[in-house]
Design goal:
The chain is an alpha/beta fold. The chain has two domains: 275 residues, Aldehyde Dehydrogenase, Chain A, domain 1 (3-Layer(aba) Sandwich); 190 residues, Aldehyde Dehydrogenase, Chain A, domain 2. 38% of the residues lie in helices and 20% in strands. The strands form six sheets. It has a seven-stranded mixed sheet, with helices on both faces. It has a six-stranded mixed sheet with strand order 9-8-7-10-11-21, sandwiched between helices. It has a three-stranded antiparallel sheet with strand order 5-6-22, with no helix packed on it. A hairpin with a 7-residue loop joins strand 5 and strand 6. Helix 10 packs across helix 11. The protein is globular. The relative contact order is 0.14.
């Protein structure tokens, strides 16, 4: 059993009671009485339970959100913005508690969890500022007569946000903050692996004065909760972050009432290191790009392309760095990498490692789950594959864990061809001192984001989304407002 520091009293108090769902301002158990265990992935032990929501619960949340929508829509942008700023302050007030809860539920080290809370606060603040800045256009018209044509941007209505387990605080807020700022009401259906943080967020929002029904949290399995929400005729919008498989299902489910859908899906991102790169910076960026968040991040730089002349030396140094990673419970300050979020995800990653072995790839380091005191947790060692070609399954399919495939390349055309040879197109990294080469490569890569001499450099104002099977639409920034608004054109004849 892993020993870890004593948790805060507020965290302990929250975990001492069964968690409940938030529907229309009321805290409730599942209508069927079922519960799901919340598991500490570092130890495999149960933290507490939360409701296994039903189709009836999902339907109730839609009714609550619909009922709250007219008043929330009518609220002035200034009032909505001010309230969102208050919500940001409330989250910040609970920073330490939320960080602990993220670590206990997700497994990531506490220092990463603290960064997540800070990001969450700034994200709410960012969209709070946008609440008063939604503008339309005045459009010149050419038809005979005197006409004024202007546009307005209006909320969609009831939004459903379905979120993954890797960022249990920021992912719900990536959906909720812009949705609320633009006058929508929202239902969050969090991952069943990390539902506690969303529930605690609902408690904080309620205490801060958010009106009943504006923000709802329904927990449970994808079937029935997610399916009911996806197919619901009174839901206007689904925003989803997760697997491409589920994304395809949501597109089909939206056909009934043609609800709007935005998707942030999987990735198999190329991280490209040219031989003229700053090697120290590139090594740090590559390491961070794949082993941050245990590799459980859609933008993970899991395909590492290294120019042939520096390939062996770069892999050797990266292997040395991976050897030095301290695995452990995220609440221990010396932990550098925590467990994967669930036993199922651990087994999935280990199966992919076996696939790599069977494909004759070579494991330079890692490749297994640790024994000893970590054996009960869902850990996987940082793993580096060499002798990989880009057509192998481990180079084409998203593993979602701390596994990187190192692949040599010759020049810009070669690496662009290999980099684009993927069903995904979420992100990419380019490491070079040559500005022309940087722009040529960035221009040719088929991805929604290209980082040059950095990786996983996120900003609230920068749009985020992918090409190909990596999704539809762009979250964050001004582009993120488009996902939650619709345009009305008003034509006035004043001749």
């Amino acid at each position: 059993m892993i020993n870890y520091p004593t948790i805060l009293p507020d965290t302990s108090e929250f975990l001492s009671r069964p968690a409940k769902m938030l529907i229309g301002g009321q805290w409730s158990d599942a209508s069927g009485g079922g519960t799901i265990d919340s598991i500490d992935p570092a130890t495999g032990t149960t933290l507490t339970t939360f409701p296994a929501g039903t189709a009836e619960d999902a339907d109730a949340s839609v009714r609550a959100a619909r009922s709250a929508f007219p008043e929330w829509k009518r609220m002035s942008p200034q009032e909505r913005g001010r309230l969102l700023f208050e919500l940001a302050l409330a989250v910040e007030k609970h920073e330490d508690e939320l960080a602990e809860l993220i670590t206990l539920e997700n497994g990531k080290p506490l220092w990463e969890a603290r960064k997540e809370v800070t990001t969450a606060v700034t994200f709410i603040e960012y969209y709070a500022g946008w609440a008063t800045k939604l503008v339309g256009d005045t459009i010149p018209v050419s038809i005979p007569g005197k006409f004024l044509n202007y546009t307005t941007r209006e909320p969609l209505g009831v939004v459903v946000g379905i979120t993954p387990p890797n960022y249990p605080l920021t992912m719900p807020l990536y959906k909720a903050a812009p949705a609320l700022a633009t006058g929508n009401t929202i239902i969050i259906k969090p991952s069943e692996d990390t539902s506690l943080v969303a529930i605690r967020l609902g408690e904080i929002f309620t205490a801060a004065g958010l009106p009943d029904g504006v923000f709802n949290v329904v927990t449970g399995l994808g079937d029935p909760v997610g399916m009911t929400l996806a197919n619901h005729e009174d839901v206007d919008k689904i925003t989803f972050t997760g697997s491409t498989e589920v994304g395809r299902y949501l597109v089909k489910a939206s056909a009934g009432n043609l609800k709007k859908v935005s998707l942030e899906l999987g990735g198999k991102s190329p991280n490209i290191v040219f031989d003229d790169a700053d090697m120290e910076a590139a090594l740090k960026g590559v390491f961070f790009g794949i082993f941050f968040c245990q590799g459980e991040i859609c933008s993970a730089g899991s395909r590492l392309f290294i120019q042939r002349g520096i390939f062996d030396d770069f892999v050797s140094e990266l292997t040395r760095m991976a050897h030095g990673v301290k695995l452990g419970h995220g609440l221990n300050e010396d932990t550098k990498m925590g467990p994967l979020v669930s036993r199922n995800q651990q087994q999935t990653v280990l199966k992919y490692i076996d696939v790599g072995r069977n494909e004759s790839a070579t494991i330079a380091t890692g490749g297994k789950a640790p024994n000893g005191q970590l054996a009960d947790g869902f850990f996987v060692e940082p793993t580096i594959f060499t002798d990989v070609n880009n057509r192998m399954a481990i180079a084409q399919e998203e593993i979602f864990g701390p596994v990187v495939c190192a692949i040599p390349f010759d020049d810009v055309p070669d690496v662009v061809t290999q980099g684009n040879d993927s069903p995904f197109g979420l992100a990419a990294g380019v490491w070079t001192r040559d500005i022309r080469k940087a722009h040529q490569t960035a221009d040719a890569l088929e991805t929604g984001t290209v980082w040059v001499n950095c990786y996983n450099a996120f900003d609230n104002a920068s749009p985020w989304g992918g090409y190909k099977l990596s999704g539809w639409g762009r979250e964050k920034g001004a582009y993120g407002l488009d996902l939650f608004t619709q345009v009305k054109s008003v034509v006035v004849n004043y001749s």
